[in-house]
UniProtKB/TrEMBL annotation:
Residue ranges occupied by any YchJ-like middle NTF2-like domain in the UniProt entry: 31-130
Record NCBIfam families: PRK01752.1
Lineage per the UniProt record: Bacteria, Pseudomonadati, Pseudomonadota, Gammaproteobacteria, Chromatiales
Entries under Gene3D superfamilies matching the protein: 3.10.450.50
Annotated region (Disordered), positions in chain: 136-157
Protein's UniProt name: SEC-C motif-containing protein
InterPro entries xref list: NTF2-like_dom_sf, SEC_C_motif, YchJ-like_M
PANTHER family: ADENYLATE CYCLASE-ASSOCIATED CAP C-TERMINAL DOMAIN-CONTAINING PROTEIN, UPF0225 PROTEIN SCO1677
Length: 165
């Protein structure tokens, strides 16, 4: 990769000035978001060792190296979208990052939407778990019209005999 290759994390910076120094270990991630971005980039680069090295002890126990390798290798990584962050700054000990990782696998566009938790241990940010964010459930603004309720169109008929047919 050339020096001006854009970083896959979407920061707008070149890879060599963004996530690569963090992944190579020459620079520590300053924030939880910086670690999140570097972990996404590690997936795109298939750097499974880095992904394992940035897990806290509780997460490392359940780390599926083979499954992670297959997911990283068999996916075409499209982009990372940071939805929001909470704490996780240079002076914090904990933080969270909500993100969407877009990728293609087996010809199907996919999205991994998660709220990740991070902890700073001995000056280094580590991934300490996450929760998938499912699709947002539709909520009505008004109550549902019942079959025997008057039709909302104003005809005077029951809904089931009018617009509900």
């Amino acid at each position: 990769m050339s020096e001006d290759t854009p970083c896959p994390c979407g920061s707008g910076l070149p890879l060599n000035a963004c996530c690569k120094p963090v992944i190579d270990g020459t620079v520590k991630a300053a924030t939880a978001e910086a670690l999140m971005r570097s972990r996404y980039t590690a997936y795109t680069l298939h750097n499974i060792n880095y992904l394992g090295a940035t897990l806290d002890a509780g997460e490392l126990q359940g780390f599926d190296r083979d499954g992670t390798t297959v997911w990283a290798r068999d996916s075409t990584w499209i982009g990372l979208e940071i939805v929001k962050t909470s704490a996780g700054g240079p002076d914090d000990k904990d933080g969270s990052v909500e993100f969407r990782a877009h990728y293609e696998r087996d010809g199907v566009m996919q999205e991994h939407h998660e709220v990740s938790r991070f902890r700073k241990i001995n000056g280094s940010w580590l991934y300490s778990g996450g929760k998938d964010v499912g699709p947002v459930q539709f909520q009505r603004d008004t109550p549902k019209t019942g079959r025997n309720d008057p039709c909302p169109c104003g005809s005077g008929k029951k809904y089931k005999k009018c617009c509900g047919k």
